[in-house]
């Protein structure tokens, strides 16, 4: 077992790719992901890693090359962020349709316009219907562990689907945290060599990505992907057990924090979960029976486990660091639909939209939400609560004034 | 050319890699291009396709090809070729596959993908020196969606998005993009134009290109009976006329040096070529658009005058406009 080292989320991702012994890395720069490909490029050019890194001319081409290389039998790693993910978006659906089990890291960043650098999850959640397994990291250690788990699950013959591992830009990508890596031997025993399905070989011609004519054949393939995706959840749980035996680190699709006797819960994902936990701890100290549920696996969506953890609670707030304008938070709606058949579900299910473009969520804001959960009377539960502080509004008005603009100009 | 195994049509390889019975239109120039190209290339190949007419060669679960095929997306066939080439190279280097399992990688698209939406991906692949072939079947419009204008569409062509009208009698008023020169500006080892009427020329070029590592790029003139409006039996005649009228010059560039491979002694008037197709019908009926026809003729002369000077070609170019054809 290795010693704990301090490293950024980007470096942890690069280490996971290196220890997974990936063959091929198609790359394209974008902040805040770039450090990953720079690190890998350096290792490869120094001879520390036996892989080929090729810089493509766009994310669309990068993802195309990633998919076709995976179909040819190479273990493929690649990474992008935000606009890059959307630029290559159509290829996500192709890659899953080709059943190419590569791993793509997305370093979350809010989507333009307005163009920004800090994270929210509209980028990665846009890909939720693409047929990629989605795993979201809370810590830099998670980034490392989830990439290794992702390869093992994706390449399992019962699954054969690509994975998207998400980490928050800045909060993880450029933040050094303690990470315990694994030895090469451990990783290679956990992750056997990739066995491609019908790769391109001269002795055995194959056709991939052929057209289908007729909805019945299309439906047949889509249903196959759905079934495999559902199985990916089971395979993940199985593989996570092996991983725990090897590392002592337990990774679950959904995790509870201070759930004993908890009546008021918040549901969170990604790095802000850490500040959510701190808030919950503070409220516990004040005597509020608060708790937190973290969702790590967004696809396949772990409905049963979510329901199990929310059952019997008084009130639950789902934090969405994303926005579907005109509807609200994306994950809120997935949690709500999961609870539909549950008789003993929470009476109050509140949608909270927070942390857009990396906006910090302060302890006071968490306290405000727990306050609403304890006193939901008069709260319009059909619409999300937007977390935005008075001092933040004052700051927006201050800079507008400084620029000689009215609030009406700020559109 | 010395050392070629293709001297006359009798040397046309008999082995077939493309079976009969695909859903292409009768007389499809693109299909013919693929058939001949494949014969010269041999069987160990993977074709990386982008959206276009020929995508429908592969309708699951049937394939008319003996070789492999990968459909990627409209904009990124060259990037798909990159992934396959790179993966094969890595696997060969790591000893995970034997050299016998290696494949020639061919990006295979229409002009919409090559000239328009996929030009960026092609530029990237050539710049990176990717060891691949690119075969474009150029039918000078978006054929599969019903013949809309592409940037390969020539001046004067009617398409469904450049219809000739009273206000705009010419049809398409822009000029065909010079993809040969765009590719050549990237300095790949080999670029060529080919045509299905000149089979020996085509076979020799593919043979010649095969000796080079890096991008080997082919633009194939692909008469399209459906979009251009001529009888499917006329495909070869239309192709032949395009070459004889000087509309489709057959040439190659080896490491940037251009050489015309078929040089007509005299150029036939472009009218002979234009009048074979419905897409140019509005240039002749209901009134003859002399200005537009002359413009096309002038462009052809201008092209060949430059080529004659550059390569000292044995071609006789009349300064006068050709006489009108009697009809």
From TrEMBL, chain A:
Gene3D superfamilies registered for this protein in UniProt:
3.40.50.920, 3.40.50.970
Give yes or no: UniProt keyword Cell membrane: no
For this entry, the protein name equals: Pyruvate synthase
One example GO MF annotation:
oxidoreductase activity
* Residues annotated as domain Pyruvate:ferredoxin oxidoreductase core: 262-365
Biological processes per GO annotation: organic acid metabolic process; response to oxidative stress; sulfur compound biosynthetic process
- Which segments constitute the Pyruvate flavodoxin/ferredoxin oxidoreductase pyrimidine binding domain? 16-240
Keyword Oxidoreductase listed? The answer is yes
Self-association and partners: Heterotetramer of one alpha, one beta, one delta and one gamma chain.
PANTHER family named in the record: PYRUVATE-FLAVODOXIN OXIDOREDUCTASE-RELATED
Q: Which UniProt keywords apply?
A: Oxidoreductase, Pyruvate
Q: Which InterPro entries match?
A: PFOR_II (IPR033412), Pyruvate:ferred/Flavod_OxRd (IPR050722), Pyrv_Fd/Flavodoxin_OxRdtase_N (IPR002880), THDP-binding (IPR029061), Transketo_C/PFOR_II (IPR009014)
């Amino acid at each position: 077992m290795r010693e704990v080292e301090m490293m950024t989320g980007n470096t942890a991702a690069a280490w996971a790719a290196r220890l997974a012994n990936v063959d091929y890395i198609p790359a394209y720069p974008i902040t805040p992901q770039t450090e990953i490909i720079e690190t890998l490029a350096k290792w490869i050019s120094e001879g520390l890693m036996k892989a080929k890194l090729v810089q493509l001319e766009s994310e669309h081409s990068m993802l195309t090359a990633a998919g076709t290389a995976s179909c040819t039998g190479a273990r493929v790693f690649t990474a992008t962020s935000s606009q890059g993910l959307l630029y290559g978006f159509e290829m996500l659906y192709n890659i899953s349709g080709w059943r190419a089990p590569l791993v793509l890291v997305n370093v979350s960043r809010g989507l333009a316009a307005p163009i920004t650098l800090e994270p929210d999850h509209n980028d990665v959640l846009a890909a939720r219907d693409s047929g990629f397994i989605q795993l979201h990291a809370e810590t830099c250690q998670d980034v490392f562990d989830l990439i290794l788990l992702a390869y093992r699950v994706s390449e399992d013959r019962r699954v054969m689907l690509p994975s998207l591992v998400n980490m928050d830009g800045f909060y993880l990508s450029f933040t050094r945290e303690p990470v315990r890596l694994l030895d090469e031997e451990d990783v290679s025993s956990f992750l056997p060599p990739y066995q491609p399905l019908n790769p391109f070989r001269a002795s055995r011609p194959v056709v991939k990505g052929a057209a289908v004519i007729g909805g019945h054949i299309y439906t047949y393939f889509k249903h196959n992907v759905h079934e495999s995706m559902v199985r990916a959840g089971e395979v993940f749980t199985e593989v996570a057990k092996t991983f725990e035996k090897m590392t002592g680190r337990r990774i679950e699709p959904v995790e509870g924090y201070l759930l004993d006797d908890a009546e008021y819960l918040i549901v969170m994902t990604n790095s802000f979960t850490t500040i959510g936990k701190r808030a919950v701890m503070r409220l516990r100290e004040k005597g509020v029976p608060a708790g937190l549920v973290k969702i790590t696996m967004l696809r396949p969506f772990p409905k049963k486990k979510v329901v199990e953890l929310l059952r019997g609670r008084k009130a639950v707030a789902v934090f969405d660091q994303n926005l579907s304008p005109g509807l609200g938070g994306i994950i809120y709606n997935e949690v709500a639909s999961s609870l539909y058949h549950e008789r003993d579900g929470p009476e109050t299910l509140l949608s909270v939209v927070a942390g857009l473009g990396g906006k910090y969520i302060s302890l006071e804001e968490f306290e405000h939400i727990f306050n609403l959960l304890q006193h939901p009377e008069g709260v319009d539960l059909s619409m999300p609560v937007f977390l935005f502080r008075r001092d933040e509004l004052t700051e927006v008005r201050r800079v507008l004034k400084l620029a000689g603009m009215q609030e009406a100009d700020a559109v | 050319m010395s050392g070629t195994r293709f001297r006359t049509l009798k040397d046309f390889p008999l082995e077939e890699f493309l079976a009969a019975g695909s859903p292409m239109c009768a007389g499809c120039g693109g299909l013919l291009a693929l058939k001949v190209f494949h014969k010269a290339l041999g069987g160990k190949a993977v074709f990386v396709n982008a959206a276009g007419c020929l995508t429908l060669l592969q309708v699951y679960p049937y394939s008319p090809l003996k070789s492999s095929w990968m459909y990627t997306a409209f904009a990124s066939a060259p990037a798909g070729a990159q992934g396959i080439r790179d993966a094969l190279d890595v696997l060969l280097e790591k000893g995970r596959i034997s050299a016998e399992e290696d494949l020639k990688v061919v990006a295979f698209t229409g002009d919409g993908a090559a000239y328009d939406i996929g030009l960026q991906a092609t530029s990237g692949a050539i710049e990176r020196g990717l060891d691949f072939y690119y075969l474009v079947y150029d039918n000078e419009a978006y054929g599969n969606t019903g013949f809309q204008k592409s940037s390969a569409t020539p001046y004067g062509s009617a398409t469904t998005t450049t219809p000739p009208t009273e206000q705009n009698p010419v049809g398409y008023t822009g000029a065909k993009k010079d993809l040969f020169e765009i590719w050549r500006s990237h300095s790949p080892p080999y670029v060529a134009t080919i045509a299905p009427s000149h089979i020996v020329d085509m076979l020799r070029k593919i043979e010649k290109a095969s000796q080079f590592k890096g991008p080997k790029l082919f633009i194939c003139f692909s008469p399209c009976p459906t979009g251009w409006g001529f009888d499917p039996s006329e495909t070869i005649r239309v192709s032949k006329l395009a070459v004889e009228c000087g509309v489709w010059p057959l040439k190659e560039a080896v490491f940037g040096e251009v050489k015309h491979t078929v040089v007509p002694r005299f150029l036939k008037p472009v009218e002979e070529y234009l009048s074979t197709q419905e897409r140019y019908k509005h240039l002749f009926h209901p009134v003859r658009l002399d200005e537009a026809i002359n413009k096309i003729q002038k462009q052809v002369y201008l092209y060949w005058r430059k080529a004659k000077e550059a390569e000292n070609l044995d071609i006789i170019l009349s300064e006068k406009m050709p006489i009108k054809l009697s009809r």
